[in-house]
Design brief:
This protein has 401 residues and is mostly helical. It contains 14 helices and four strands. Helices cover 63% and strands 3% of the residues. The chain has a four-stranded antiparallel β-sheet with strand order 1-4-3-2, with no helix packed on it. A hairpin with an 8-residue loop joins strand 2 and strand 3.
């Protein structure tokens, strides 16, 4: 459909031609004495009339399930981890230390490998990295399920390897930026954020309600052989269930996800991607030398190009601190809930911990979907970030004290 032609009167004394390269438009100004018109044949529509690009629902849904499964892998051991280390011979007083070791294995693996997964995704494609990572999560969920019967070092190694092979989250965010544009990216990114909240709901639910099932549920009494296996491997069932979710999500990703890396697209896939890829999306050169934002410290020359500008460096540093705050609270909260009353804890069961974490995940999803977008539009990202960050610190400190 051709852009509408606009004609307006202008008095000028000389002929001139001006070209505007923004968004590919051309503006021609002719001599007013001869034509007395200004012809703008390809002026782009105003911002208020910009057409919103349709959301690629199948791709977004498949990506949602993939990231949801990875979030469930991270959060499913939370309700039973304190009880698991105690069953392996750790005293109540030392439970917190060993819970931190086991849980920290996964995040240590994430930290060590995320940069590498980004490099691999740039070379071999986004789709194979996300699918491979999700399948590996299922495998190491099974390894962790078996290790809960044997030793803490084996459980820690299983979690570390699971974290080291988990590249779906960072690559998934890149995938979102490549299948959306500025008209729909905010909505899709909110959906992807909600996937983590959904994982926070289902993961603890499976970890809390499916751990130690032989002692909780009487319907297993008619199956003595199954019950004896579940008595020996108390915490295997929730991890196997989460592993099954990972395999299902990997299958859906295999069916519906399309590669977005141009060098790895076939002709058919490339044509499909170009149809849904925005032509006016903004890009940023990480090597741009902008003195306004460039770090002036002498040590900045030793940083990667991505971190040599103050804005990006500050954003990444604040995100690291925010993750430290969130993960630290989750681990301390689980230990606090499992600690007996005599030692100042809540003495919750795995079901109780799972239920409270479900409530936390539901609230997080609702706030992200319903409240955050309105506040962000009204107050802006920076103001909202400062407010929420201080609110989280104060509120969580009050809860733990």
């Amino acid at each position: 459909m051709e852009s509408p032609t606009k004609v307006c009167k202008r008095r000028d004394t000389s002929s001139e031609v001006q070209k505007c390269h923004g968004d590919g438009c051309t503006i021609t100004i002719e001599d007013a004495a001869s034509t007395d018109t200004l012809n703008t044949s390809t002026v782009p529509p105003s911002t208020s009339s910009t057409k919103i690009t349709p959301i690629p629902m199948k791709k977004v849904a498949a990506l949602f399930v993939l990231l949801f499964a990875n979030a469930a892998v991270s959060t499913s051991p939370f309700p039973f981890l304190p009880f698991m280390v105690q069953d392996l011979g750790v005293s109540v007083e030392e439970t917190g230390s060993y819970v931190g070791i086991v849980a920290g294995g996964m995040y240590l693996g994430n930290t060590a490998s995320n940069w590498l997964w980004g490099i691999i995704a740039d070379k071999y494609g986004r789709r194979p990295v996300m699918l491979f990572s999700t399948v590996m999560q299922a495998i190491f969920c099974a390894v962790f399920a078996v290790s809960t019967r044997w030793s803490i070092p084996l459980a820690t190694i299983a979690r570390f390897l699971g974290g080291a092979t988990n590249g779906a989250l960072p690559v998934g965010k890149t995938y979102v930026s490549e299948i959306t544009d500025h008209t729909n990216q905010g909505k899709v990114m909110s959906v992807i954020t909600i996937s983590w909240g959904a994982g926070m709901v289902i993961g603890p639910a499976l970890g809390g309600f499916l751990s130690d099932p032989a002692r909780k549920y009487d319907f297993l009494d008619p199956y003595p052989s199954l019950k004896s296996v579940l008595l020996e491997y108390k915490y295997a069932l929730p991890m196997l269930a989460v592993g099954g979710v990972c395999l299902l999500s990997a299958f859906l990703g295999y069916v519906y996800l399309i590669e977005t890396l141009p060098s790895r697209q076939t002709d058919k896939l490339s044509a499909d991607t170009k149809t849904n890829t925005p032509t006016h999306a903004k890009t940023m050169d990480v090597n741009t030398d902008d003195n306004e934002f460039a770090l002036s410290s002498s040590w900045s020359q030793y940083l990667p190009p991505l971190l040599r500008h103050r804005t990006r460096f500050t954003a990444i540093a604040l995100y690291c601190l925010l993750c430290l705050q969130g993960v630290g609270f989750n681990e301390l909260y689980n230990v606090f809930c499992a600690t007996p009353h005599a030692l100042g804890g809540l003495q919750y069961t795995t079901n109780d911990i799972g239920f409270t974490l479900i409530a936390y995940g539901v609230c997080q999803s609702l706030v992200t979907a319903l409240i955050y977008p309105a506040l962000e539009r009204r107050y802006g990202i920076c103001a909202l970030f400062r407010c929420v960050d201080f609110w989280n610190v104060d509120l969580r400190a009050c809860i733990l004290t």
